């Protein structure tokens, strides 16, 4: 099951990024389809359907630019809404404590269950996409996400709120999981799709950071239930706007429909149980295996998971810190997260500058000279961003006190968003470029499992840690851990080739 993969489409040059393959950005659905095509070829079955030629108008990459740009909006904005919903109520946890007569730790559990849903959702998205295509995954899953978000706003007790939020997270996650595949369907990320890919990747980070901002503003004048209504007020109109105009972008779904219209016989496909087994392998079994056997996946996933965990911990720690030191209410505490938004945007700009001035230049030189560019150049962004985390955490730790103006610790959050964005973008592109297509989808799934796992757990101990250790030492403890993790991009920049060549999976060698 875990042997090295086989190239399934055109042979890839050593210096060519895996994101430039026909299927674009890796996702579990397309990876499974490639595996199924491999089995057909090995068993001597009819070849899988393909485009009529490079200029086939049915190919989403040949659609008009404005059409492709429009198809980019639904996955990006749906991802924004889904992640906005996750922390949006956290600045109003005191209201939940009072209404349901529960502790703060219990009031935070709905955030945990919603985030756990993000980890479980891809296992739902992959089989649905394989059977029906991406369009219908968006149509069905996002509609039910809105329904269970409404149910969360109507929850009569904390147990119901936790359950409804878990289901909403599971149903919202397909937008995150399938979205990467949609971007890869319609754009060549090496030619003209870089901005679209960046827009999609930034959306969930902006949603997570803006959640407390909007939640704090609305819960200041209304109850916590209005935070759920706000998600509906944002997500509902977007759903009604996009759904009628969305097109199917998934290659097998397009070709299957066209083959039926033309009367072309379809190649036999494995039974549902066999396809489901492969889907679970890509989305769960192989990612878990990589998390315990692949040093590259382990280290980079741990680093991105820690940054994501701290972000979710801040959903509780920042209201507590600014509330105790400066008397901030939920509205003012939520606005502090605007600094994180600014940092995320700054990090994306810096990553783009590094990509264009360093990586793209080396990439073009490699093509011209017939050489391969070291994929470790992808880690330069993480090396820069790694300084942002400890700087932010230590800055916050020892300036968040009543004797220092509140703007000083608030500004520190900018560097956290900056470092988080650079670390994630660098780690994601490095994993995608290091592993061949089949394993790349599982490597990113492994990263997501650990990332959302940390995001679910960290808020649960935030207040205890900040209460027992104090703001200074609690934030410093996180700062010391971030200093230790700073070594990750530097170590793999220097020794990445060593680990790639000894990987049990199919990776870029040399």
UniProtKB/TrEMBL annotation:
InterPro entries: MFS, MFS_dom, MFS_trans_sf, Sugar_transporter_CS. This is Major facilitator superfamily (MFS) profile domain-containing protein. Residues 1-15 have a biased composition (Basic and acidic residues). The keyword Membrane applies. GO terms for cellular component: plasma membrane. GO terms for biological process: export across plasma membrane; xenobiotic transport. Residues 71-499 form the Major facilitator superfamily (MFS) profile domain. Signal peptide: none annotated. The chain crosses the membrane at residues 136-152, 158-183, 195-220, 226-246, 296-322, 334-354, 375-398, 404-428, 449-467, 473-493. Keywords: Membrane, Transmembrane, Transmembrane helix. It comes from Orbilia ellipsospora. It is a multi-pass membrane protein. GO terms for molecular function: spermidine transmembrane transporter activity; spermine transmembrane transporter activity. Gene3D superfamilies: MFS general substrate transporter like domains. Belongs to the major facilitator superfamily. Its main location: membrane. It is found in: Membrane. Coiled coil: none annotated. The lineage of its organism: Eukaryota, Fungi, Dikarya, Ascomycota, Pezizomycotina. Residues 1-30 are annotated as: Disordered.
